[in-house]
Specification:
Largest sheet: none
Helix content: over 70%
Shape: flat
Order of helices and strands: HH
Number of strands: 0
Amino acid sequence: MSETALLFESLRLMLIGMGIVFSFLLLLVGILRVMSWAAARLAPLPQTEPAVPVAGVGADTELPIAVIAAAVARYRAGRRAAP
């Protein structure tokens, strides 16, 4: 076989392989879309009611915020003192 024939044969084989891979990926995307559609249609997400805020929740979050703020201030003060 000549070099030109080998080159064309390898190009043809490459295009066939790329076409098969591309076709498989298109098939995979199609199957996933159909499965997503079927899952949404057959098993819809349950409707949940929005959470109602509980009175007095703010007092529980003040202490952790103060602790975090103190830790950040101490870290920054230590970074300034270091050479």
